[in-house]
């Protein structure tokens, strides 16, 4: 696929600027509750920002079919609310203290309030989505939330264990790629896509989401805390095994495997043990292997939309995988 078909990042975000601003306003309105604590937590979470890549994908998918209704903005806010709710629950489960360079919400309001705020956000997302009066949208969102909750439960069961690559791929599909796929699918539904077009766009979202999470997991091991906005090696601290670690486990010596297993099982990560694990990963080219896998998923995403006619929107979708694999946070 020709690389000169893609646009650049500035053009990408400029193209969506007005719609993303509208989604931000919708998000703000939709997270207001009659209970002050929920509104306060919702506003704090929204203020944490984020890349907003998920609603951007939904917008692009709908625009691919020249959709002009208000539903894309409304559902863009819905997917961002769902994503925010998952982050609240994740931080509680992981006992996280930092999120995007700020104190995690649970450190400010406590676990009990944040669990309930996350639940409220889930229900509010469905309430807003119901305004579309589209059963396919609701079915898609229900399937999504079930997959994500199942993924979180599976991840808890796998914590502290040396999982296989297949298990890892299943987890990151549920954790991340499923939502990316649903964003593309819902845009296609709004735009009146054919069944084949919808599946191609859902596949694009899945592959892009897989690439996104693999890169995220590599950055957790290699980036600095200032760049990440959270402590480095958070996955190891939480007993989570990611792709680079699995790659090394399949190749390393018995003593090296024992060291990694101890770190994962005991969740005993300090500067010294983190350095030793990184040494092992570098010895076997595991960071590069994970990054290469992300590149392959990025290329699969591009291939999934190769049959769509050339347009500004298609060029934006061709650029997104490049952004995902090249980012540093």
Can you describe what's shown?
The protein is an all-alpha fold. It has one domain: Farnesyl Diphosphate Synthase (Orthogonal Bundle), CATH 1.10.600. Helices cover 75% and strands 1% of the residues. It has helices at residues 9-30, 36-47, 53-63, 71-94, 105-109, 111-130, 135-158, 165-191, 195-222, 225-228, 234-237, 243-249, 254-266, 271-283, 286-304, 312-326, and strands at 98-99, 102-103. It has a two-stranded antiparallel sheet. The radius of gyration is 20 Å and the shape is globular.
How is the topology of this model organized?
Elements: H1 9-30, H2 36-47, H3 53-63, H4 71-94, E1 98-99, E2 102-103, H5 105-109, H6 111-130, H7 135-158, H8 165-191, H9 195-222, H10 225-228, H11 234-237, H12 243-249, H13 254-266, H14 271-283, H15 286-304, H16 312-326
Helix pairs in contact: 1-3, 1-4, 2-6, 3-4, 3-8, 3-16, 4-6, 4-8, 7-8, 8-9, 9-15, 9-16, 12-14, 12-15, 15-16
């Amino acid at each position: 696929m020709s690389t000169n078909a893609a646009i650049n990042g500035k053009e990408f975000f400029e193209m969506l600027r007005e719609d993303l601003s509208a989604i931000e306003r919708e998000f703000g309105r939709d997270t207001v509750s009659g209970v002050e604590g929920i509104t306060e937590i919702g506003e704090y979470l929204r203020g944490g920002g984020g890349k907003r890549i998920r609603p951007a994908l939904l917008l692009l998918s709908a625009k691919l079919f020249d959709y002009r209704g208000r539903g894309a903005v409304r559902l863009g806010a819905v997917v961002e609310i769902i994503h925010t709710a998952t982050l609240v629950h994740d931080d509680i489960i992981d006992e996280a203290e930092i999120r995007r360079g700020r104190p995690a919400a649970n450190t400010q309001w406590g676990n009990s309030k944040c669990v309930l705020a996350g639940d409220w956000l889930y229900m509010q997302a469905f309430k807003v989505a119901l305004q579309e009066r589209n059963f396919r949208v609701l079915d898609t969102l229900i399937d999504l939330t079930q997959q994500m909750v199942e993924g979180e439960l599976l991840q808890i069961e796998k914590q502290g264990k040396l999982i296989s690559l297949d298990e890892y791929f299943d987890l990151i599909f549920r954790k991340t790629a499923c939502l990316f796929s649903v964003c593309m699918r819902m845009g296609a539904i709004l735009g009146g896509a054919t069944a084949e077009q919808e599946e191609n766009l859902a596949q694009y979202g899945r592959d892009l989401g897989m690439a996104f999470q693999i890169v995220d997991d590599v950055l957790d091991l290699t980036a600095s805390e200032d760049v990440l906005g959270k402590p480095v090696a958070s996955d190891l601290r939480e007993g989570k095994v990611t792709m680079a670690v699995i790659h090394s486990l399949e190749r390393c010596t018995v003593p090296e495997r024992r060291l990694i297993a101890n770190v994962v099982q005991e969740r005993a990560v300090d500067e010294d043990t983190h350095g030793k694990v990184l040494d092992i990963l570098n010895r076997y080219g595991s960071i590069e292997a994970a990054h290469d896998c992300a590149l392959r998923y990025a290329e699969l995403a591009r291939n999934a939309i190769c049959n769509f006619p050339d347009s500004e929107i298609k060029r934006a979708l061709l650029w997104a995988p490049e952004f995902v694999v090249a980012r540093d946070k």
